[in-house]
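#onboarding

Welcome to the new folks! Below is a worked example of what a typical request in this channel looks like: someone posts a single protein sequence, and someone else replies with the predicted structure as tokens. Don't worry about understanding the tokens yet, we'll cover that in week two.

Example request:
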Amino acid sequence: MKYGRRGWIVMHKTRPAPAIPFQAIVEKAEAGAYQAKPARVFGFEEIGTAHRVMEAGQAGGKLVVTVA
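Example response:
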């Protein structure tokens, strides 16, 4: 991965990957363009529980651990 004129570019050793405009993705996320609906949200103090849920295959979707 390298930073180019238009943002971060993902590269692959055996085949070229298209440039991914990470900054544009970040800006859209900040603007609320993506509506993520996590299955569960854990506080940082519950990270052990979150890991056990994930390892047991009981997540049922994306898990989020908040750090603030």
